[in-house]
Amino acid sequence: MNVLSEKISEKEELLFQTTLKLVFENGFHGTSMSMISKESGVAIGTIYHYFKSKDELLLTLIRHIKQLGFEESFGKDNRKLDYQERFKLLWRHLYEHLVAHPEFMSYITQFYSSPFREKESNDSICFQTELGLFIQEGQRQNLMKDISHDLVSSIFLGSVMNCAKQYVHKKKKLKQSEMETLANIIWNGIKS
What we know:
The structure is a single chain. This protein is mainly alpha-helical. It has helices at about 10-25, 35-40, 45-50, 55-75, 85-100, 100-110, 125-140, 150-170, 175-190. Helix 1 packs across helix 6 (about 100-110) and helix 5 (about 85-100) crosses helix 9 (about 175-190). The radius of gyration is 18 Å and the shape is elongated. About 25% of the residues are buried.
């Protein structure tokens, strides 16, 4: 099943939301299919109709979360703006998305700290691919330093994730001026 090219059903959405909640509370290994069934009210056989295994459910869910992040950031990209402004808006949109959905951030963090990360297929990494293309675009226009895409991605995504985590832990959302300041600091570090 490829979530990136198909709409998800209401039942799949319910299973995703339930899984997010249970993984947040119990971790990956502490969350069983029977717990998901009980919490969601969806029969275990029905869950297996949608997902062959718990692994498939968890892998499909990370693709879904990344797709939503992609839509909330790159889906709002306005190519009529100059590149620097697009860079800052991309950062802000992703930050606001993660702050609005702290369960996504928790899931992403747990996923990439677990053995499941090794099972993720490369074709599901649409956000990182698009970010890499965005970075290439800036480098082609000589607007960004010619440094590794992985390094720029780490700086970009790391700052977004850490700022969003601060909100989750301290309940203090960045002000517009603080987001602008941080985006400028990042931009000034990577611009040509």
